[in-house]
Structures are given as structure tokens and as C-alpha cells.
Write a structure and sequence with these properties.
308 residues, alpha/beta, Spore Coat Polysaccharide Biosynthesis Protein SpsA, Chain A, 2 domains, seven-stranded mixed beta sheet, 10 helices, 17% strand, elongated, binds uridine-5'-diphosphate, binds magnesium ion
């Protein structure tokens, strides 16, 4: 039996949102009349979330759940949902109703037009601090500049994707998940719909600044080697300056004779060693960036279909 749609819902202390979310999702799937499953991943909540999920399971055979032993983080929760999903199309949505479930209808229809990924791009964001919006905007733009793949800006994980994409994601074993980057990396035909991001319906954000910074660093290190190259570039830059200063030190010693004894050899040694060290670190960086790409063990390419 194949299912039309899987909806993945990561849950971290969302007791006040679960039943409203469930009702709105149920309405959406009946509107577009698809066979479906809802996978709730309880990511170590310490409120009543799990109890409420179990009640839904009793009531509705389309509801499935994965209960984590502790809080592993949002990206990992979504990954568990992806691994368990059976639908031909898979939706990722936040539980706090910031992603309006009704947008799924539009995303689903867009997908029927022949796209493999339809992500929801935020036109506006209600009820979030200036600081969060500002840092998010800045981060997405920097990331877009320093990566070679096109990671869409102003987009969270709210999206629908085809089984083809889901199967590739399951083959990407990296420990640091930055799903929106991975999905962009996979390719196929991707598009977006615009939406207004609502305010969190109730409860508090589970994304502390610490979690946000970790996600940002995972995104950068998984998709860009620019920081490593930075070491090499500084190495060469400093060496260049060192060279000029060396010439000056030699000039002071032998031509203008305006020098303190011992200073020339000392400064030359310091400058030279500094430059060499930075270049060496840079070169190690070059090797490490290639090594880390290998440790990631991503497939080399993705075949759409073939007749071999
Ligand atoms: N979430 C999770 N694990 C966490 C933090 C958050 O599963 O460690 C879930 C949370 O329940 C919600 C989604 O991830 O469904 C987005 O989190 P949140 O709304 O707290 O983040 P924000 O919208 O403030 O960035
Ligand atoms: Mg939220």
C-alpha cells in the first residue's frame, strides 16, 4: 500500500499546540483528499506532549509517533521522521503553527505541476524579535554567498518534497544535519510559494541562541570551505608583508646602518616563522577540507532515472 502524503511534526514541549495543529492538518488532508500519515517525533519534551500524542494515536490510525530518549534537536527529530516516512510526498512542518498548515494545499498543488520540492518562503515574520529576524536575514545571505549550491534565503524547513528526494536524504549520513542545505544539494526541480509566517500560537520557542548558533555553524561547515581557505589567504598576505619588512630590516642593517644590534636577526626570524606557520596551517586546512568532505560520505551524484 502506498501513501500519498507523510507529514513530519517535530515536537518539543508543544502541549498547547498539538490538538489545534492536528485539527487544522486533518482539514487540509481532507480538502486535498489524500491518503496520509502524521508522524509526531517527540524530541524529549518534559510537558504533556507525549500523552497528547498517545491520545491521538488511540483515536486515529493515521497518527504515528517516535519518542526520543532525550532532546536531540529539531534537525535530528525531522531526520527520524524522514527515515520512517512512507508517503510519496513528505511535508516538514513546525508544531507551533508558525507554519500555517493551509499552505500545504498550495504546496501540494504546485508539486502536482511537476516539482520535486516546494519550499515555503517567508514573506513576513510576525511576533519575532528584531534581533532574530536580523541575524537570520544576515546569516542566510552570508551562507548563500559562500556556498556553491543555491540554498534558498528566508526559508525554514517548512516544505513538501517528493519520495525521490527523501530517498537521497536517507543516504546522506552526515552527523551534522542542515536539512535545507542537503535538500538544495540534492537538486531536481525546486520551487517555492510565498507565505506570511504567523506568530507562535502558544508556548515558548525551543530554539535557544545556543541551538541557533550550532545550526548556523553546521550549515556553514557542511556547505562551505571558505573559512579554511581564509587561513591560507592570511598566510600569504602576512608573508607578503613579512617580505617587505625583511627588506627594510636588511636595508637598516647594511645601508642606513640605523639599527639596534641583534634586532635584524630577531625580527627576521619572528616574521619568517609567523608566515611559514600560517601557510602551513592553511595547507593543512586544504587537506582537511577534502578529508572532511570524504568523511561526510555523500553520494557522488544522483541519478534521476536510467535504463542501464
Ligand atoms: N523543536 C524540536 N526540538 C528542539 C527544538 C524545537 O523538535 O530541540 C521543534 C519545535 O517543537 C517546533 C519546531 O521544532 O515544532 C520549531 O521550533 P521552535 O518553534 O521552537 O523554533 P523557532 O520557530 O522559534 O525558530
Ligand atoms: Mg516556532
Amino acid at each position: 500500500m502506498s501513501l500519498d502524503l507523510t507529514v513530519i511534526i517535530p515536537i518539543y514541549n508543544e502541549e498547547i499546540n498539538i490538538s489545534i495543529l492536528y485539527d487544522r492538518l486533518k482539514k487540509v488532508v481532507s480538502d486535498i483528499s489524500v491518503s496520509h500519515e502524521f508522524i509526531f517525533i517527540n524530541d524529549g519534551s518534559w510537558d504533556n506532549s507525549m500523552k497528547l500524542i498517545r491520545e491521538l494515536v488511540e483515536m486515529d490510525s493515521a497518527v504515528r509517533f517516535i519518542n526520543f530518549s532525550r532532546n536531540f534537536g529539531h534537525q535530528i527529530a525531522v531526520t527520524a521522521g524522514i527515515d520512517a516516512s512512507k508517503g510519496n510526498a513528505v511535508v516538514i512542518i513546525d508544531a507551533d503553527l508558525q507554519d500555517p498548515p493551509e499552505v500545504i494545499t498550495e504546496m501540494y498543488h504546485k508539486m502536482q505541476e511537476g516539482f520535486q520540492v516546494v519550499y515555503a518562503r517567508r514573506k513576513s515574520r510576525a511576533g519575532e524579535s528584531f534581533f532574530k529576524k536580523f541575524t537570520a536575514k544576515l546569516f542566510y545571505r552570508i551562507l548563500a554567498k559562500i556556498t556553491s549550491i543555491k540554498i534558498p534565503v528566508d526559508t525554514g524547513d517548512f516544505r513538501i518534497m517528493d519520495r525521490k528526494i527523501v530517498d537521497v536524504l536517507k543516504d546522506m549520513p552526515e552527523q551534522q544535519k542542515y536539512l535545507r542545505g542537503q535538500i538544495a544539494w540534492v537538486g531536481f526541480k525546486q520551487t517555492y510559494v510565498l507565505y506570511d509566517r504567523d506568530e507562535r500560537f502558544a508556548g515558548e520557542t525551543g530554539y535557544t541562541y545556543k541551538k541557533m548558533i550550532r545550526l548556523a555553524l553546521d550549515g556553514i561547515t557542511s556547505f562551505s570551505n571558505l573559512p579554511l581557505k581564509f587561513a591560507t589567504m592570511t598566510g600569504f598576505f602576512v608573508s607578503g608583508i613579512t617580505f617587505l619588512l625583511s627588506l627594510y630590516a636588511l636595508y637598516a642593517r647594511f645601508i642606513s646602518k640605523d639599527y639596534v644590534p641583534g634586532w635584524t636577526s630577531l625580527i627576521l626570524a619572528v616574521l619568517f616563522i609567523g608566515g611559514v606557520q600560517l601557510i602551513s596551517i592553511g595547507i593543512i586546512g586544504e587537506y582537511m577540507s577534502r578529508m572532511s568532505a570524504n568523511v561526510r560520505k555523500r553520494p557522488l551524484y544522483v541519478v534521476d532515472d536510467t535504463n542501464v
